[in-house]
Amino acid sequence: NPPDAQPPDDFRFFAVLGTWMEEDVVEATVRNAFAQGVEAVYIVDNASTDATVERAIAAGATLAESFETDTYEERVRILLMNAVVARVSLSSGAQSIWWLWLDADEFPEGPGGVSVAEFLRGLDRRFRSVGSTCYNHFPTGKPEYISGFHPIDFQPECEQYTSSYVHHCVQSHWKHPLQRFDRHDLFILASSGFHTGALRTREPVLEPVGGIVTHHFPYREESVTRR
User: Fold this and answer.
1) pTM, whole model, 2 decimals?
2) Which end of the chain is more exposed for a tag (fewer CB within 10 A), N or C?
3) Structural contact between residues 147 and 27, judged by C-beta atoms closer than 8 angstroms
């Protein structure tokens, strides 16, 4: 990011969250997104039959889309999440919107002790995507997790995750969960898993050196994890 960075004149900051049967953690996920500075969290739910949606709404989220499939269908999920981002962005009237893309077991934070929103406020307008360094967290004691709390309270032990065979950018970011909608520029289409974002012209979507951090907590209950 250049020292004389010129951020967009004004932008809003929303999150889109894909969920499926995650009642134990979704409340904390939504609260963390708000703590990082988002104005609103939009849920795209795969017809969860537990209390996922109810707990997300209680934490302040908005159910934007619900769909039902016989098995997990990432292509359907990402299609609907992109549609929600497009629909909300176009109807908002905003010129620019930073979107934070989330799974329910992901807890992002800004670099150097700042929130994600503070980080974005200083980012030059040429950057429309931000990569994330990912840390996988592991349970080392009991309980592995208690619903409603930030999982890092129970699982501080972690290691940085990098793939030896997939490289989504030259910085080896596992995901690019921040992508900016600009009303007068091409729409960025998020790929499955939010690993990248692409323009229809296939021009590169620029990102700054560094980025944010995502804490990943996939192991929250021993019986489920072992299955």
Assistant:
1) 0.96
2) C
3) yes
Q: Distance (Å, rounded) from C-alpha 49 to C-alpha 152?
A: 26
Residues 187-201 as b/e (b if ≥16 CB within 10 A, e otherwise) read bbbbeebbbbbbeee
Would you say 143 and 71 are in contact if contact means Cβ atoms under 8 Å apart? no
Predicted confidence at residue 19, as pLDDT, reads 96
List of residues 6+ apart from 66 with CB closer than 8 A: 44, 45, 46, 47, 53
Cβ proximity of 91 and 10 under 8 Å: no
CA distance 160 to 25: 21
**73, 51, 45, 88: which is closest to 187 by C-alpha?**
88
Q: Please answer whether residues 110 and 188 qualify as being in contact, where contact means their C-beta atoms are separated by less than 8 angstroms.
A: no
Q: What is the spatial distance between Cα 48 and Cα 185, in angstroms, rounded to a whole number? A: 35
Of 154, 170, 155, 171, nearest in space to 212 by CA:
171
Task: Read off the pLDDT of residues 32-55 as tens digits, 9 standing for 90 and up.
Answer: 999 999 999 999 999 999 999 999
Which stretches of 13-98 are DSSP H helices? Answer: 26-35, 52-58, 74-92
User: Which amino acid appears at position 21 of this protein?
Assistant: M
Q: In whole angstroms, how large is the CA radius of gyration of the chain? A: 17
Q: What is the pLDDT of residue 196?
A: 95
Ramachandran angles phi, psi of 186, nearest 5°: -65, 145
pLDDT at 162: 86
Single-letter amino acid, residue 23: E
Element (H, E) at 99: strand 96-103
Which residues in the chain show pLDDT less than 70?
none
